[in-house]
Write a structure and sequence with these properties.
Length: 573
């Protein structure tokens, strides 16, 4: 596709004419045009300042804004310190209108920055700023190797009187094609002062396969140094650099070292917290008394418990809850993963089944899991991706005849349910449903049941919290009284796949997942609603419709249903 300025030369003419109408002197970078990019060199006088600017237009102009660079300026705020791009409007694309021009930005927005151009303090522009912070880590991370990361706990507040010390980190080195063994991945586990006093320790998740312990030095800055790695190192100076590196303790062979810089970072508009800049050093083998050292930024991110919960405040209390999850098939496995992603503290997964080729089209993990027990696969996956959730796995086949030397299943189940805050049942087995519902009821543990109908045409999520009817009451309402309409089902929605000993139901994963998502919402409400978290469901049963009675697709809809306890049922007493 031809560049936008070739497809619409009138748009290009409008850009230049409007800039000239402002009094700007404009020249087109002809060399950039040959590569399909429009770059305008602009000399523009505004107020008492005459600025040399560079306008760079995106390939998708006018749908997206042009960038305005000011190479001769070094503003303390509202300018990218490395690229020199000016922050004239907010980052969201909604701030730019396709009918606007670069001249619009210069006329309406640039005057707001003139106090900074004249040397005024940052406070001079605060009243006209958008209410969002400018974190320095955004600049550093843009310059760091993409694969690198160094995590820290955003709740740490280091004693402001301590100006430096040592830290420990768990890490691994990741090879890159262009620079083997350069990139660091890990998390800071302990911060200490010069006197060895512990100032902060990691309370977040322990990442799997990050096992190497490294120790480095850190120092405090009163304000961040904005710039690329060379600018930062130059500003630190030789003395502070040498102290951070601590080369006297380096081995003679090629190796990697790590340092950190603590600085006040703006995390919200004019709100500051401790920020960390990671610097990794790749040191070559010493030769004739000399050693070459290359410094590189490491991407830093906040990953403490509060940081991870910040985007999901309604489910914060999940981190203190424990859930027993029975059945990890097409509904249960995705739901278990969702609960862990939401931050649940402990999961007990109970299932005897293995991953078979015929199941992976609607199971969350594919061919890599073949031949393994479902609960073992999920446990490994959760340890890798959501390590804040403690996972236990049990392969009990509930209802099977006792195997010699095994403890009785009744005793095993009683032990498994001890200390649980919720029982979730996705087994699709009536006998198991009945048993688990009763075991949970007599222990006062909430119980949630989820299933889908043949064909994946619909499904149900039922919750039993001890303040209403029981599982037998639901069965009575569905099949004896028939006071609750059953969700739609495919009359031909069961089959026995070749090689499988039991019939199963048909249905697509993207339909069955709808049941699992409502299951997770229900569980989150039961587990956190009383603490002011995710809203508690006010109904006992939710019925899903994905098809009508003839099998035609309808928009997914959930119907909330309530029913009463049977007069003669023991759950009333």
């Amino acid at each position: 596709m031809r560049p936008w300025f070739e497809r619409d030369p009138e748009l290009l003419a409008r850009e230049i004419s409007e800039l000239e109408r402002l009094g700007a002197i404009v020249s087109v970078d002809e060399e950039a045009l040959t590569t399909g990019t429009l770059r305008l060199q602009i000399e523009y006088s505004v107020g008492e300042a005459t600025l040399r600017l560079l306008g760079i237009y995106p390939d998708l102009y006018p749908f997206f804004r042009p960038e305005v660079l000011a190479p001769d300026l070094a503003l303390p705020r509202h300018q990218q310190p490395i690229s020199k791009a000016l922050c004239l409007i907010g980052r969201r694309t909604s701030k730019w209108y396709a009918e606007d021009t670069l001249a619009t930005l210069l006329r309406e927005q640039l005057p707001h920055l003139l106090p900074l151009v004249a040397g005024a303090p940052i406070e001079a522009v605060v009243p006209v700023e958008e209410p969002q912070g400018e974190p320095a880590s955004d600049y550093y991370n843009a310059e760091a190797p993409r694969e690198s990361f160094l995590l820290f706990d955003g709740s740490w507040s280091i004693d402001p009187t301590v100006m430096g010390g040592v830290f420990q980190a768990q890490m691994r080195k990741v090879a890159r094609d262009d620079r083997p063994e350069l990139t660091v991945q890990g998390y800071i586990t302990k911060i200490s002062g010069m006197d060895g006093r512990t100032l902060a320790e990691w309370q977040g998740p322990r990442l799997s396969q990050i096992d190497d312990l490294i120790e480095g030095r850190w120092l405090r800055l009163n304000e961040p140094i904005l710039g690329d790695i060379n600018q930062v190192l130059d500003a630190l100076g030789d003395e502070r650099q040498q102290w951070l590196k601590d080369e006297r303790r380096w081995p003679n062979h090629r190796h990697l070292a790590l340092s950190a810089v603590l600085y006040p970072e703006e995390v919200q508009h004019r709100v500051f917290a401790d920020g960390w800049l990671g610097i990794q050093w790749l040191a070559s083998r010493r030769h004739r008394g000399f050693r070459q050292t290359v410094g590189t930024f490491v991407r830093t991110s906040r990953a403490g418990p509060e940081d991870l919960a910040a985007r999901m405040p309604a489910t914060r209390a999940l981190q203190d809850r424990s859930v027993a999850f029975f059945g990890t098939g097409a509904i249960g496995a995705p739901a278990a993963l969702e609960l862990a992603r939401a931050g649940v503290g402990r999961l007990l997964l109970v299932d005897h089944d293995m991953v078979d080729p015929s199941t992976i089209r609607r199971w969350p993990l594919g061919l890599s899991a073949l031949g393994a027990l479902k609960v073992d696969v999920l446990k490994r996956q959760l340890a890798d991706d959501y390590p804040w959730t403690e996972v236990e796995a049990d392969t009990m086949k509930i209802g099977a005849a006792e195997v010699e030397n095994d403890a009785p299943q009744g005793a095993r189940l009683a032990a498994l349910l001890e200390g649980q805050d919720l029982v979730i049942d996705c087994t699709a087995e009536l006998g198991v449903n009945h048993l688990l519902s009763e075991l949970a009821r007599v222990r006062g543990i909430p119980y949630v049941l989820a299933n889908a109908t043949p064909g994946g045409w619909g499904g149900m999520v039922a919750s039993f919290t001890g303040a209403g009817p029981c599982w037998l009451c639901l069965r009575h309402a569905l099949y004896t009284e028939k006071s609750i309409p059953l969700p739609p089902a495919d009359p031909a929605g069961e089959l026995q796949p070749p090689g499988c000993a039991d019939p199963t139901f048909t249905g697509s994963a993207f339909d069955l997942t709808e049941v699992g998502l409502e299951l997770v919402r229900t569980a989150a409400g039961i587990l956190t609603g009383a603490a002011g978290g995710y809203p508690l469901p006010t109904w006992h049963l939710a019925v899903l419709h994905l098809r009508d009675a003839e099998g035609q697709r309808v928009p997914p809809s959930w119907q909330a249903v309530d029913y009463r306890s049977r007069p003669s049922c023991g759950c009333r007493h």
